[in-house]
Amino acid sequence: MLRGGTAAAHFLRRKVDPVAIHFGPITVRWYGVFIVAGMVLGIFLAGRRGLKDRLAPEVFHDLLPWIIVGGIVGARLLFVITYWDQNFSGEPWWHVLAVWQGGLVFHGGLAGAAAGVVWFARRRQLPLWVLADALAPSLALGHVLGRVGCFINGCCYGLPTGVPWAVHYPLEHETKGLPVHPTQLYEAGLNLLLYAVLEALYKRKQFDGQVFAVYLAAYGVLRGGVEFFRGDYSNLMGGWITPGHWTSLVVLAAGIGLWYRLPKVLTRRDAPTPAP
Q1: How far apart are CA 156 and CA 182, in angstroms?
Q2: How many domains does the chain have?
Q3: How much of the chain is in helix, strand and coil states, percent to nearest 5?
């Protein structure tokens, strides 16, 4: 999740300005720089990966705009739904569209980007699950960069803690200068590990869609674990369940469902038609 109005981060006595560049009244934040870098790197690697399944790199270049549009729309929509009472109730309607002020949720972005990929695959008559497998490791790697951007930006922070690796934000930050878990870096590290696993699996996959199914299931687990350390939610269900826990459970269930369902569907599709 991304929120506006964050400040510079302190980590092991290091201070990083969340704003990368100023163009007059326009500011470019490191969060955006890392997101764009993750997308570009991810599509480049997916193009190289797709050669194994005879997909030209140009396919992924053409797909990128649909991933961006679908991802932003989905991420913003879920943020608005989740934080309507805190951020949008009673505000002018155009605040819902003000993405530049902050407010994105990854699970919504994943769903929106997936919708863009499905539409693109059908329009181009491309194998959907082959595309999904080629993109899955890139999703994990791009998320690594995105979470580093979150850390610099000061969003998605953790609960107060006394661990030696705690991060301190300035007094004007929402954490009020208290040491908190660097949950952004926890998730970045776990996504980096997941990326390595998915790259290895891609070379040995047994059916189309397997890599994507593993990504969904594994990400649901790792994100659900990190959620226990998040401190940026104002409302918790039952005192400890975050909105991210529910969406992580949905992602996990989707991954498990695809793992068991796809081999059966693909086997039936590829089975020879009996002679009349």
Answers
A1: 9
A2: 1
A3: 65, 10, 30
Does any domain span residue 149?
yes
3 state DSSP class of 109: helix
In a domain, 168, yes or no: yes
Whole-Å CA distances, 236 to 74, 82, 182, 243: 22, 12, 20, 8
Tell me how far CA of residue 33 lies from CA of 23, 28, 43, 183, 215, in angstroms.
Answer: 14, 7, 16, 20, 24
- 138 vs 196: CA distance, rounded Å: 10
Predicted local confidence at residue 101, as pLDDT: 59
The answer to whether 163 and 82 are in contact (CB under 8 A) is no
- Return the higher-pLDDT residue of 243 and 91: 243
Q: Please write the tens of the pLDDT for every residue from 153-166.
A: 888 899 999 999 99
Question: Does any domain span residue 13?
Answer: yes
Does 1 map to a domain? no
How far is Cα 107 from Cα 34, in angstroms, rounded to an integer? 18
pTM of the model: 0.85
Q: Which string of DSSP letters, residue by residue, matches 189-231?
A: HHHHHHHHHHHHHHTT-SSTTHHHHHHHHHHHHHHHHHHTTB-
